[in-house]
Design goal:
9 helices, TIM Barrel, alpha/beta, Lyase, Ornithine Decarboxylase, Chain A, domain 1, elongated, nine-stranded mixed β-sheet, 24% strand, 362 residues
Length: 362
């Protein structure tokens, strides 16, 4: 790794472009979210897919989380082998090779996986039997996102009834995700969440009405902590982005500190009003718009693969070749996996280099 030996050095000595993680801000965010949920019926099951760091997952567990959520098998492996004992894969695991690995990972902790298809569930049950383990399953319910999931109500009940007949797997509950709630109007957002959560909780009640225990009813994210996080019957919420943050989440009113940045160097000052930095499309994602900056007075006017062209206001004319700028990603979840490692910093000093092992997940 090109950043080895950096611990203890000033941030200004870091080669760019680099992914910086402000550890103080990340830890304050973890504490703040834990405090918000202390005493609530709904608990935290934070999502690993954004930050991808086992050390942060352990901090989230220490702050009171009931478990950690992840999106992929490789992430579950990273979590379980780091000592996290309660892991939910909020996704379907398909294919003989992956299912065999899923079963073997169940030896390392309480592992749950989502299902929405009987033949897939049966394959998981067979693999669990072959490995001599039991696997927890959540039936995923489509609450309006139209991604994965069985339909709410009676179709979900019928699906769960069939799953209960399978050996070696334990039906633990339901998961739904109301992913369409990035809307700015608070009333509209509340209404969308309410409809989605009602579908999920009413489905849980229908299943319980048949004498089937539903322990987990999991949903939501950082964007819906004051809707889903307060909805009666939701047992836990899969908050992710709040730890690192980005401009997209801030735009939608999520009030946590920015903790992840891309450090970039000015490599050209061709004329007044224009500068070029060494970070382009390969340094941050643009699926949620252009990144922003910590300092005022400049903005990206164009991104090439390895160049970012900046338009400068008069107050930013002081920028010189070799100066470093702090870029705020517009979408952390899709920017972070572009890097092999974080440069963890406290203040102006590098604390550690932290590899992102599940950058390309499977």
């Amino acid at each position: 790794m090109h950043h080895c030996g950096l611990a203890g050095r000033p941030v200004q000595q870091v080669n760019t472009p680099a992914l910086l993680l402000d550890m103080d801000a990340a830890q304050r965010n973890i504490r703040k979210m834990a405090e918000l949920f202390r005493g609530r019926e709904c608990k935290l099951r934070p999502h690993f897919k954004t930050h991808k760091l086992p050390i942060l997952a352990h901090m989230q567990m220490s702050a009171g989380a009931v478990g950690i959520t992840c999106a992929k098998l490789a992430e579950a492996e990273d979590l379980l082998l780091s000592g996290i004992e309660n892991v939910l894969i909020a996704n379907q695991i398909v294919g003989a090779q992956k299912i065999a690995k899923l079963a073997s990972l169940a030896r390392y902790g309480r592992l749950m996986v989502c299902i929405d298809d009987y033949s897939n569930a049966a394959e998981i049950a067979r693999a669990a039997g072959a490995a001599g383990v039991r696997l927890g399953v959540l039936a995923e319910v489509n609450v309006g996102l139209n991604r994965c999931g069985v339909n709410p109500g009676r179709p979900a009940l019928n699906f769960v009834r069939k799953v209960l007949e399978l050996p070696n797997i334990d039906f633990r509950g339901l998961m739904g995700y109301e992913g369409g709630v990035f809307v700015k109007d608070p009333a509209e957002k509340a209404e969308i969440c309410k409809k989605s959560n009602a579908l999920l909780v009413e489905t849980a009640e229908l299943i319980r009405g048949e004498g089937i225990p539903v322990e987990v009813v999991s949903s939501g994210g950082s964007n819906t902590i004051n809707q889903t996080g307060l909805y009666p019957g939701i047992t836990d919420i899969q908050v992710g982005s709040y730890v690192t943050m980005d401009s997209h989440n801030r735009e939608f009113g999520i009030d946590f500190e920015q903790a992840v940045f891309v450090l970039s160097t000015i490599i050209s000052r061709p004329e007044s009003g224009r500068a070029v930095m060494d970070a382009g499309k390969k340094a941050f994602s643009c699926d949620a718009g252009m990144p922003g900056f910590v300092e005022p007075g400049f903005a990206i006017t164009m991104l090439c693969e390895e160049h970012g062209i900046l338009g400068l206001a008069e107050e930013a004319e002081h920028l010189r070749i070799g100066d470093k700028v702090m870029v705020i990603p517009s979408h952390g979840c899709t920017t972070i996996p572009l890097y092999d490692e974080y440069i963890a910093v406290r203040g102006d000093t590098v604390e550690a280099v932290l590899p992102i092992r599940t950058r390309q997940t499977s």
